[in-house]
Design brief:
Distance between the termini: 34 Å
Protein name: LapA adhesin domain-containing protein
Strand content: 25-35%
Radius of gyration: 26 Å
Pfam family, one: LapA
Organism: Brenneria izbisi
Shape: rod-shaped
Structural class: mainly beta
Oligomer: single chain
Strand order of the largest sheet: 1-2
Number of strands: 6
Length: about 90
Amino acid sequence: ITFAANSAVGTSTAFAVQGDDAYQDSESYTVSVTDSGAHNFEQLDSSDTATVTVTDTVDTTAITLSSDNQVTEGSAFTVTATVGAPVTG
């Protein structure tokens, strides 16, 4: 986190957050004060850190398979897959 001169608000460098990936859980980033600017902070502990955790929100989706219950041996048949949530990506 960097503090500009004459500012009490600090900013951090942006970091990329994972996209929707069903195989990755949440991820964490550690932030700390890297530049206190021209401020004269009393008792600023720039060695302290904070952890930001981005929680992955996995959407559970059900797929239902259906077909005609009767089929003659040796003939073709169709199985339909219905997705229970909108398909994205």
